[in-house]
């Protein structure tokens, strides 16, 4: 290890601007390590005029993002707006290792073709949050490929097995007798080496990335660099307000979904959860957020703020007109109206049972689900509630509705 003694650094005073930047940085975070060090980095940046280098590494394992994925990106944008250099690091090399973080089995590595396709889609979607013109895009294969076998072994010599086994998922798997492959130890080392290569001042990640981020900090010390600070962001709860946002759980808001779908989903979150979404995702300032909370305490309807937030998200990921159209569509639906733009389908086999009709129209996954929706009063034909599960639908044209958000204009023939 590098044992060179560094001269004591003079503590810089924290100006009002630095304290404001620190408050913005800390907004909604899970942890900022080490806060006093980061405050000094901010002060030094202000004094020298040299922006901090802020790194976010993402393995492009899936091409589609939801609002939960954008929590870290939103924090990057806040730091970008403070004038710092944000580095969007695409882990094309590490993706081919497979990160085991938070998993009890080895994640299969991706092919080069999958990585390239996902990376392209990932950055296009991330650019809806980040200022793409001011974002530095890097690929960790730039410095990882040239390492070669010799360099990889030398890097591996800088970290002990005992330190690796401090990671929670490794410990649990070892105790359970679940296999741990040697290559999995290389992942946090390679992610840490990215911080060395980029001379990172701050690295962001989810709470499940804390161990890997700390490895980067230790490796930087070993290479004689000033160690990065680390910032972890919490996992955003989904629309149910309980489980983390996930496509598999169906409680997500996809950032490429139609504007009216995004809007309606956001309007379904609870008034309490609304503040969590505001804190982690809105671009409103800390002062504006405090004013919103005060207004609600003084009697303002929280629904108005939910509308404002939903419009902000639709505008961000689509445009202002889409946000206005989504609001109009939502208001129309809330009054029992039928949206203008709904899918159309042509079916045959009349007369057709209501369960089969809803299934074939794609509004329910199965006839049994469709009949449950009828029981619950959630099915309408041309605006009229259907209560008869044995109803046979004759040939004709009509609008089917399931719940508040699912519609289809159906042409049914014999």
Automatic annotation (TrEMBL):
Compartments where found: Cytoplasm
Motif ('KMSKS' region): 244-248
Keyword entries, A-Z: Aminoacyl-tRNA synthetase, ATP-binding, Cytoplasm, Ligase, Nucleotide-binding, Protein biosynthesis, RNA-binding
A GO molecular-function annotation: tyrosine-tRNA ligase activity
Keyword Protein biosynthesis appears in the UniProt entry: yes
GO cellular component: cytosol
Reactions catalysed according to its record: tRNA(Tyr) + L-tyrosine + ATP = L-tyrosyl-tRNA(Tyr) + AMP + diphosphate + H(+)
Principal location class: cytoplasm
One Pfam family hit: S4
PROSITE patterns found in the cross-reference section: AA_TRNA_LIGASE_I (PS00178), S4 (PS50889)
CDD domains: S4, TyrRS_core
SUPFAM superfamilies: Alpha-L RNA-binding motif, Nucleotidylyl transferase
Binding-site positions, ATP: 247
Any GO BP annotation: tyrosyl-tRNA aminoacylation
Motif ('HIGH' region) on chain: 60-69
Known EC number: 6.1.1.1
Domain RNA-binding S4, first and last residues per copy: 352-413
Sequence similarity: Belongs to the class-I aminoacyl-tRNA synthetase family. TyrS type 2 subfamily.
Assembly and binders: Homodimer.
Physiological role: Catalyzes the attachment of tyrosine to tRNA(Tyr) in a two-step reaction: tyrosine is first activated by ATP to form Tyr-AMP and then transferred to the acceptor end of tRNA(Tyr).
The protein, known as: Tyrosine--tRNA ligase
Species of provenance: Sapientia aquatica
Gene behind the chain: tyrS
């Amino acid at each position: 290890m590098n044992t060179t003694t560094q001269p004591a650094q003079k503590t810089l005073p924290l100006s009002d601007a630095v304290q404001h930047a620190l408050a913005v940085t800390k907004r909604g975070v899970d942890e900022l390590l080490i806060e006093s060090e980061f405050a000094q980095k901010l002060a030094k940046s202000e004094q020298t005029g040299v922006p901090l280098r802020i790194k976010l590494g993402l393995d492009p394992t899936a091409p589609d993002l939801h609002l939960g994925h954008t929590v870290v990106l939103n924090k990057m944008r806040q730091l970008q707006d403070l004038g710092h250099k944000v580095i969007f690091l695409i882990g094309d090399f590490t993706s081919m290792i497979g990160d085991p973080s938070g998993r009890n089995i080895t994640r299969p590595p991706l092919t080069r073709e999958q990585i390239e396709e996902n990376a392209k889609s990932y950055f296009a979607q991330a650019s809806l949050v980040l200022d793409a013109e001011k974002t530095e895009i890097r690929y960790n294969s730039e410095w990882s490929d040239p390492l070669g076998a010799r360099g990889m072994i030398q890097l591996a010599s800088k970290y002990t097995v005992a330190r690796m086994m401090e990671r929670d998922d490794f410990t649990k798997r070892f105790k359970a007798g679940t296999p741990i492959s040697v290559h999995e130890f290389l992942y946090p080392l390679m992610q840490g080496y990215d911080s060395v290569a980029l001379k990172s001042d701050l690295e962001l990640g989810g709470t499940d990335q804390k161990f890997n981020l700390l490895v980067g900090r230790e490796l930087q010390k070993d290479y004689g660099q000033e160690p990065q600070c680390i910032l972890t962001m919490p996992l955003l709860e989904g629309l149910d307000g309980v489980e983390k946002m996930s496509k598999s759980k169906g409680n997500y808001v996809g950032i490429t979904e139609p504007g009216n779908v995004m809007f309606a989903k956001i309007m379904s979150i609870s008034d309490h959860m609304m503040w969590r979404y505001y804190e982690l995702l809105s671009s409103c300032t800390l002062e504006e957020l405090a004013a919103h909370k005060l207004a609600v305490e003084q009697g303002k309807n929280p629904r108005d703020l939910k509308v404002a937030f939903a419009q902000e998200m639709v505008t961000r990921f689509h445009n202002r007109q889409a946000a206005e159209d989504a609001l109009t569509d939502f208001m129309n639906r809330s009054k029992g109206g039928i949206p203008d733009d709904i899918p159309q389908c042509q079916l045959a086999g009349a007369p057709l049972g209501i369960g089969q009709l809803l299934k074939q129209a794609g509004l329910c996954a199965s006839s049994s689900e469709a009949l449950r929706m009828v029981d619950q009063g959630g099915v309408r034909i041309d605006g009229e509630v259907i209560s008869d599960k044995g109803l046979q639908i004759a040939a004709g044209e009509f609008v089917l509705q399931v719940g508040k958000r699912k519609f289809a204009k159906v042409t049914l023939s014999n």
